[in-house]
Automatic annotation (TrEMBL):
Residues 48-169 form the Alcohol dehydrogenase-like N-terminal domain. Belongs to the zinc-containing alcohol dehydrogenase family. The keyword Zinc applies. The lineage of its organism: Bacteria, Bacillati, Bacillota, Bacilli, Bacillales. It comes from Cohnella nanjingensis. Its cofactor is Zn(2+). Keywords: Metal-binding, Oxidoreductase, Zinc. Residues 257-332 form the Alcohol dehydrogenase-like C-terminal domain. This is Alcohol dehydrogenase catalytic domain-containing protein. InterPro entries: ADH-like_C, ADH-like_N, GroES-like_sf, NAD(P)-bd_dom_sf.
Length: 379
C-alpha cells in the first residue's frame, strides 16, 4: 500500500540554518508499518566532518524484508518505524566538507555508524565496548542505517565522512553494491584469520550469505578449494560454488565424515538448529564455530559435544569501517568479480517513486531467489 502524505517535489539543496549547521532536505520512501510505504520529506542537519551522499544503487537484504513483512517482534517494529529501509548500497558525493572526498566521487556507504563519530568524540570517551577496544561493531551508542534510523531509500543521506568509503575505479557498481554483505563475512572471519592459512573450513548454507562467506574465505583469505567444504540442500545453488568442495547436507554422513577446524553457520531461520548441530558434529576438538545466520527463535544446541570438544562459539552479524577496505581491494581482482557476479540479477529494478519501491519489496518478499535484488534509484 502507498500512502502519499505530500506532493512530490524536487529535493531542495543545502539550506543555511540560523546557526553554524546546514539543513538539507531529503525525499524518502519510508516504511510506516508492514507493507505500507510513505513518500515523504525529511530534513537532515549537516555538521562538520559529514558528507552528503546521493544513493544510486541499493540491494534488498533479508533484514529489510523482515521489517517490510512484519516478521520482527511487535515491540521492535513499534520502536523503529517509520523508517527508510536499505543498508546495502553505493552512491555519489554531492557535498563534502573533507578534502579526501570530492563531489561526484563513488562511495560505498557504511551503515554501522559508531557513537563517537556521531558525537565527534574520541573512541575512548564513547561506550564500554569502544573504550575496551572491542571495536565499533559493538558500540552501545551506535546507529545502523535501515534499522532504527533512516537508510538508503532516500535522495540525500548524511553520514560521517569515514563512513563513505571510495570505490576503486576497477570495481563496477554491481560488484561494489555487495561490499557491505561481504564485509560482514570479513568481520566474522577476522577472529580466526591467523588460523585460515592451514585450517579446513566448513560453511553451512547455500544462499547468498553462505555464498559470500565462502567467496570471502577463498578470494580474500586464500582458503583453497581442497580445504573449503560448503554444505547445502539445493544442487542448483551448490553448482555456483565452483571455487569450493560441496556436499548435499542430506547425503553427508555427519557421524563419520572428515573433521574441520572451523565451521561457519550461514543458514538462519528455521534451519538454524540443524545447521548449528551439524557444524558441532563435524568440528574437531578445540574447533571454532562462527554463527552468522539470523533467526527470531531460540535454537537448541548439542551442548554435550560443545563441552566435550571444547568448541568455541562466536556470533557476528555486522561489520565496521575497517572491514570495507580489504574487501574492496579484493574486488579489484577479475576472478573475484566473476565469482560475486553470480549473485547479480539479469536486470536492475528502477526506483522512480514510492510505488516502484513498494513493488520491488513485494516482489522480493514473494519470490526470494538466489540473485540479489538491485535497486536503481532515480531521484
Amino acid at each position: 500500500m502507498i500512502i502519499k502524505i505530500q506532493k512530490r517535489a524536487e529535493v531542495e539543496g543545502l539550506i543555511p540554518s540560523s546557526g553554524s549547521k546546514t539543513i538539507i532536505q531529503s525525499k524518502a520512501y519510508r516504511l510506516i508499518q508492514p507493507h505500507q510505504i510513505v513518500e515523504s520529506a525529511i530534513a537532515h542537519e549537516v555538521e562538520e566532518g559529514q558528507v552528503v551522499v546521493e544513493p544510486s544503487l541499493g540491494s534488498i537484504c533479508h533484514a529489510d524484508l523482515r521489517y517490510y513483512s512484519g516478521n520482527r517482534r511487535p515491540e521492535a517494529l513499534a520502536r523503529k518505524l517509520p523508517m527508510a529501509l536499505i543498508h546495502e548500497g553505493i552512491g555519489k558525493i554531492v557535498s563534502s566538507g573533507v578534502p579526501e572526498l570530492q563531489t561526484g566521487q563513488r562511495v560505498v556507504v557504511v551503515p554501522n555508524i559508531p557513537g563517537y563519530l556521531t558525537d565527534g568524540i574520541p573512541p575512548d570517551q564513547c561506550c564500554p565496548a569502544c573504550r575496551s577496544g572491542h571495536g565499533e561493531n559493538y558500540c552501545h551508542r551506535g546507529r545502523f542505517l535501515g534499522s532504527g534510523v533512516d537508510g538508503l531509500a532516500q535522495s540525500r543521506l548524511v553520514v560521517p565522512a569515514p563512513c563513505a568509503i571510495p570505490v576503486p575505479d576497477e570495481v563496477p557498481d554491481g560488484i561494489a553494491v555487495l561490499t557491505e554483505l561481504c564485509s560482514v563475512s570479513y568481520q566474522a572471519l577476522a577472529a580466526v584469520a591467523d588460523k585460515l592459512a592451514a585450517s579446513k573450513v566448513a560453511v553451512f548454507g547455500d544462499g547468498p550469505v553462505g555464498f559470500l562467506a565462502a567467496a570471502v574465505l577463498h578470494h580474500v583469505y586464500g582458503v583453497e578449494r581442497e580445504r573449503l567444504l560448503v554444505f547445502g540442500a539445493i544442487p542448483e545453488k551448490l553448482a555456483q560454488f565452483d571455487f569450493a568442495t560441496v556436499s548435499l547436507v542430506q547425503d553427508y554422513d555427519f557421524s563419520s565424515g572428515p573433521r574441520f577446524d572451523i565451521a561457519v553457520e550461514c543458514t538462519g531461520g528455521r534451519f538454524s538448529e540443524s545447521a548449528i548441530n551439524q557444524a558441532i558434529a563435524v568440528l574437531r576438538p578445540g574447533g571454532q564455530l562462527i554463527l552468522m545466520g539470523v533467526t527470531e527463535d531460540r535454537v537448541p544446541i548439542n551442548t554435550r559435544d560443545v563441552l566435550e570438544k571444547g568448541i568455541k562459539m562466536r556470533g557476528s552479524s555486522r561489520s565496521s569501517r575497517t572491514d570495507f577496505v580489504p574487501v574492496l581491494q579484493a574486488m579489484k581482482d577479475a576472478g573475484c568479480q566473476r565469482t560475486l557476479g553470480r549473485l547479480l540479477p539479469e536486470r536492475r529494478t528502477v526506483i522512480d517513486s514510492a510505488e516502484d519501491f513498494d513493488a520491488a519489496m513485494r516482489e522480493a518478499e514473494a519470490h526470494r531467489s538466489w540473485a540479489k535484488v538491485l535497486l536503481d534509484f532515480r531521484w
